[in-house]
Amino acid sequence: MNALIEGFDTLRQTLEPHPWLYAAVVVAALCLAAWLANFVTKKVLLRALRRALRATVMPAATGEGRDFRYGVIPRLANIVPALVLMAGVVLVPGLPEAVVKVVRNVGAAFIVLTVALAISKALDMFNTLYQRRESARDRPIKGYLQLVKIIVFAIAAVLMIAVLIDRSPLVLLSGLGAMMAVLILVFQDTLLSIVAGVTVSSNDMIRVGDWIEMPSASADGDVIDVSLHTIKVQNWDKTITAVPIKRFLSESFKNWRGMEESGGRRIKRALYLDQSSVRFLDETTQQRLHRLRLIGDYLGEKEGELAQWNAEQGEWVRTDPANARRLTNLGTFRAYVVRYLRAHPGIHQDMTMLVRQLQPTATGLPLEIYCFTAGTSWAFYEDTQSDIFDHLLAILPEFGLRIFQEPAGHDLRDGLRQHAVAEEG
């Protein structure tokens, strides 16, 4: 150590006749010392952190561990060379006091900024670790962490300005009261987003992974991110829509989470029947329908019930068959549909199931099927729904019923051809 001090003294005495050269050497030595301090600090901290991360849920080999080592640590390590420069600037000969003060103030401001950036990176790391938990999907904290970042950088900005102008931070904070109206005007969107984010999170209105539908924002798909200002939705066409979070309080939207959690997805579709094909069943048709396994017992019960009721009416039924109760092809078909749904493996049997007539329209008599599938996935739902209506459309002629369909070109050609044949005959 003594030899090193003597060497510096000798160098100083040698360069004293050349002040500018001596100052340049001191500056170069100071910069070299700062670089070495930075290099050594990073090596030591990274080695220590590498060992610590191996024993945690964030091993150093993972992407998160690398982000922590190469994101947070270098920023913290930059504090050391700043301290070296702040402490060694007084050793530069002939440097004005004002310059020394400026260097120290800039160094202090740099340290504040470095700490703020390190805290921001650490918050990102914390969010990454939190998202590994199962509860993270229900309670995302990304918006809250972004709010903390805003506060951290706001405080850092006040401290940096205070250091650079060499004033107490309290002086700046006291002046913020007069600027509050301006700040509220400038950051009104952020403030509204904070309130909306807290409301959405506390009421559990939206989670990552939810299927939401907001026509006013052209959003229809899965939520992939919930942040302070926006909620990102990946639509079914794989496009991404970013919706300001405050719109979820002022506009209506649909969340399909309840459907997914219930285990069943609703089918609500109608068959439009030609009303002119509705009629009473004759004996031949009744006997033919007995071969259908699903309604064999139903026909037997109804025939016995109707025969007993008609017998009690006596002379009225014998005088005019219009006074008798008879089976209709539409009522029998409706009973068949109910039993078909009860036997279908793709239908949820513990949820509402209806087969009902709706108000007749100009396009036919709607026979609505209202039930729920046993699964909620899109493919399963569409496959089950299509399978049901494929069968019902194909089985309709067995009951003497027809689907209503407006005339097409083929129908008109057939009609004209039959008319021409009739005239020739």
How are the elements arranged and paired?
Layout: H1 2-15, H2 19-54, H3 63-77, H4 79-88, H5 97-130, H6 142-164, H7 169-186, H8 188-202, E1 211-214, E2 219-226, E3 230-235, E4 240-244, H9 247-250, E5 254-255, H10 257-262, E6 266-273, H11 283-289, H12 296-313, H13 315-319, H14 329-343, E7 354-357, E8 365-372, H15 378-395, H16 409-424
Antiparallel strand pairs: 1-2, 1-5, 2-3, 3-4, 6-8, 7-8
Helix pairs in contact: 2-3, 2-4, 3-5, 4-5, 5-6, 6-7
How would you explain this protein's 3D organization?
This protein is α+β, with helices and mostly antiparallel strands. The chain is built from 16 helices and eight strands. The chain has helices spanning 2-15, 19-54, 63-77, 79-88, 97-130, 142-164, 169-186, 188-202, 247-250, 257-262, 283-289, 296-313, 315-319, 329-343, 378-395, 409-424, and strands spanning 211-214, 219-226, 230-235, 240-244, 254-255, 266-273, 354-357, 365-372. Helix 2 runs antiparallel to helix 4 (79-88). It is rod-shaped. The relative contact order is 0.06.
Average pLDDT figure: 79
Largest sheet: 5 strands, antiparallel
Query: Helix/strand/pairing class, anyone?
Result: alpha+beta
Spatial arrangement of strands, main beta sheet: 4-3-2-1-5
Q: Helical proportion?
A: 55-70%
**Topology as a string of helices (H) and strands (E):** HHHHHHHHEEEEHEHEHHHHEEHH
Number of strands: 8
Question: Uncertain spans, ≥5 residues at pLDDT below 50?
Answer: 59-65
Strand content: 5-15%
Output the radius of gyration.
Answer: 41 Å
Span between N and C termini? 130 Å
Alpha plus pi helix count: 16
From the spread of the alpha carbons, the general shape counts as rod-shaped
